[in-house]
Write a structure and sequence with these properties.
One of its GO terms (cellular component) is cytoplasm. GO terms for molecular function: catalase activity; heme binding; metal ion binding. Pfam families: Catalase (PF00199), Catalase-rel (PF06628). It is an enzyme of class 1 (oxidoreductase). This is catalase. Helices cover 29% and strands 15% of the residues. The protein has 14 helices and ten strands. Strands 1, 2, 3, 4, 5, 6, 7, 8, 9 and 10 form a ten-stranded antiparallel β-sheet that branches. Helix 5 crosses helix 13 and helix 13 packs antiparallel against helix 14. The chain is globular. The protein is of the alpha+beta class and 500 residues long. It folds into three domains: 81 residues, Cytochrome C Oxidase, Chain J, CATH 4.10.91; 266 residues, Catalase core domain (Catalase HpII,  Chain A, domain 1, Beta Barrel); 60 residues, no CATH class. The structure holds protoporphyrin IX containing FE. The site of protoporphyrin IX containing FE has 29 residues, from strand 2, strand 3, strand 4 and helix 10.
Amino acid sequence: MDNNEYFQSEKGNIRSTTCRQNEQMNRNQPQSSFPCNCNNSKPMASPPPCPNTTSPQTGKSDVYHSQTVGVRGPVLVQDTALHETLETFVFSTTLPRRLHTKGYGAFGYFYTTHSMREYTKAGFLQAPNQRVPVAVRFSLAASNQGTPDTLRNVRGFSTRFYTDEGIVDLLCNHLPVFFIRDAINVPDVISHLSPSPVNNLPDPERLWSLFAKYPEATNMMMWFFSDLGTVKSLRHIKGYGVSTYVWQNAQGVRRYVKYHWFPLAGEKYIDQQEAQWLACQDPNISGRDLYDWIAKGKTVEYELCVQLMNPEDAKLLPFDPLDDTKVWDETMYPLLPVGRMVLNRNPDNYAEQVEKLALNPANLVPGLEFSDDKILQGRSFIYSDAQRHRLGPDYRNIPVNKQPNWSPASMVSSGNGRYIAGEIMREGIPNPDNFTQATQRYESFSDMEKNNLANNIASGLVDAQPNTQRIVLSHLERVSPVLAETVRNQMLFFAGTPGR
Ligand code: HEM
């Protein structure tokens, strides 16, 4: 099947709305993309009959009035046109994503620049110049539809490759590490990142008690509270797979793999002050920037690179390479260029093409597998559960998710042929090493970056409870006594600032 067919089915036949409902929607949304043969747009599969009434405004055939007893009489319960119109309106939205709720989409293509045949048998990575269509969704991890784009957050950067072997989804974040290393803690962490359940307001104690409770989140703290946490343009962010995956080649050799996207236009971030100012000026600035750029006919481009590791190395390293609170040293595991992505098309129907995009790290093709990364193992099944809940059991037949001849047997089973034996248990990893990489990250910053980090931490931590402050400061002490001291001093400054 030509890959472009995936896209050809996106428009038209999107839902079996009746012509009456389409007219209703067309009235509300002049640029509606729900087609109806009543106003000479695209024909529907089985056109329903149009009612014989005429709208005084448009002069078009329409249901314009509810059915009543006389002109001023009550509306009839039997008015099925009214019922359908209102019910269609009520049910017309898709449930929001549980995480990464606010987002933006773009489309284009990916082409392989370097053969990865030595490392993976994935069909679309075998030879230079192989090209596949892509859909990308950028998002804010802890968000609702009203979250300002520039506020401190993790940005999602997910890519769907429509390959000849099936759909491959690569879900990335714009920061390389995660807060925790075991999926069972995710609901708790998300509750710490969410507004208070009492009053729906952000609560510094909820946020900072996350960093007090999970010392493994200290490395993430260094990334999240640096200026990398505040983003103005999605055209200038990196993307990281965060979780460690496995590549398997045709000879059956397996390697661990970490994914990296690099923006070809360069990386750009803003500081907290500018982020807060822009949040008021234009809360949707990064979505607008992406859309307007592509609408002008310009492209957004990223390079995909991977780091590969022999699984045997895990025994020699001072940290666990499957621990997603860690990065891999790029001098030991160099970045190998794989290919480039070009985004050149905006969505023309956000609800159908972006909101209903059901991205799932389990959408793999032979040659791409899961590793034993405990977060990735938790992610292996939860996305399809979320999507069944959000989009319904038929979500794989929504045009943007559809792939030809899909059946459950199309799912790749990771690790076939591996021999594993061991005692069943609930334990942490043997070498958690929560602070070494946090120190390395802090020491890599310039003086200005160190100062901004301390300022960003202190301006929030000052509003947490004293016991939470004490524990977080003790973690910072282990990263760098200088950092802890600077944060302490900044907190005194903020505490004394009038109007807080
Ligand atoms: C065990 C840990 C995790 C769980 C349980 C989890 C769960 C979820 C769920 C339920 C969604 C919403 C899916 C939907 O409704 O379509 C989601 C979205 C997402 N997750 Fe995770 N997640 C986890 C960790 C991660 C990590 C480590 C990353 C880093 C790459 C990540 C990246 C994303 C992205 C980018 C999206 C948005 C996808 C989109 O744009 O539709 N998640 N996650």
